[in-house]
Amino acid sequence: MNTFLRAVVMAGASLAMAACGGEMTPEEAALAENEALTQSESELGSCNNWSEYNPTGNTFCDYRSCGYTWTCDDWYAKGSNAAAKETPDENILYCENGMPAYRVPNPGTFAETYSYRVCFDQYGNYTHTEYQYSSSLMACGC
């Protein structure tokens, strides 16, 4: 919709300037476009600012943000974590059989949170509510 408004504004501004006997500079065109878009968007309605994040009450277990441990379990040899070698210090961890240890991420419990904002039309009538979600680490371990 913004693209349509931008095209209408630019066409109208160009015609007006041509009728007055002059071409618009790029700076004048950008200024006219921004002013018209701001007015057009405000006339279409608005949404309030986002609220603070609030807990949803949902938690989940995920394997991030809680570090990792090393294992020699052969089951991990087939996974994507096999023989992780990110720094020279990690290369010193070897199993009894001489193979490198496998890095295994530790699980963490995460709390889901949400934020919302309320939207209105140009007449001040409620139209809809928008939500966005996030999560934060509560504790390592699940």
Strand segment count:
6
Distance between the termini: 46 Å
Q: What structural class is derived from the secondary structure elements?
A: alpha+beta
Computed Rg? 28 Å
Number of domains in the coordinates?
A: 3
Largest β-sheet summary: 4 strands, antiparallel
Overview of this structure, please?
- This is Lipoprotein.
- Keywords: Signal.
- Residues 1-18 form the signal peptide.
- The chain has three domains: 1-45, no CATH class; 48-66 and 107-142; 68-105, no CATH class.
- Helix content is 26%, strand content 35%.
- The chain contains two helices and six strands.
- Strands 1, 2, 5 and 6 form a four-stranded antiparallel sheet that branches. The chain has a two-stranded antiparallel sheet with strand order 3-4.
- Helix 1 crosses helix 2 (26-44).
- The relative contact order is 0.18.
Pick out its properties.
about 140 residues, alpha+beta, 3 domains, four-stranded antiparallel β-sheet, two-stranded antiparallel ribbon, 6 strands, elongated, disordered N terminus, signal, Lipoprotein
Brief account:
The chain is of the alpha+beta class and 142 residues long.
Topology (SSEs and partners):
Elements: H1 2-19, H2 26-44, E1 45-47, E2 54-62, E3 68-71, E4 102-105, E5 108-121, E6 126-140
Antiparallel strand pairs: 1-5, 2-5, 3-4, 5-6
